[in-house]
Amino acid sequence: MRTYDFTPLYRATVGFDRMADLLDRVMTNDVATNGYPPYNIEKTGDDAYRITVAVAGFAPSDLNVEVRENALIVAARKEKGDAKRTYLHRGIATRAFEKTFQLADHVHVTGARHEDGMLHIELERQVPEALKPRQIQIASHGSVDAKAIEGQTVEA
Prior knowledge:
- By secondary structure, this protein is of the alpha+beta class.
- It folds into 2 domains: 1-34, no CATH class; 37-128, Immunoglobulin-like (Sandwich), CATH 2.60.40.790.
- The protein is built from 3 helices and 7 strands; from the N terminus they run H-H-E-E-E-E-E-E-E-H.
- The chain has a 4-stranded antiparallel β-sheet with strand order 1-2-7-6, with no helix packed on it. A 3-stranded antiparallel β-sheet has the order 3-4-5, with no helix packed on it.
- The longest helix has 17 residues, at 17-33.
- It starts with 6 loop residues before the first helix and ends in a 7-residue tail after the last helix.
- Keywords: Stress response.
- Pfam families: HSP20.
């Protein structure tokens, strides 16, 4: 098990403590959950993503997908209906799990579907217009626009 000390990062940066906390959480979660269940994260467009979680053995009613603050939480709990079965080998794990994915700012879940033992969760980055980059026109000193900006009246 590897552990990293992020204390120097806190001392050398201002306002990045959320990123350091996220790195620390990711390192801790990967070790703790042991990779169950397996999942993929793919980029499907410029601002679109898909998380696919392998949920073999779980029905859609056994799954719960929830968004809390900047976290996507995928959980599953199987009802105990296997008491009557006797397994010689049980390779399909249907144990309960809770998987947390940290979402960046302005990333929203747009949908989820269960298909062929896979849970597909669609995400999209929706940056508000106020935060998008915008081009600012530069006016020259002698132009009409520059005088209007300075508060002077323009005579025609």
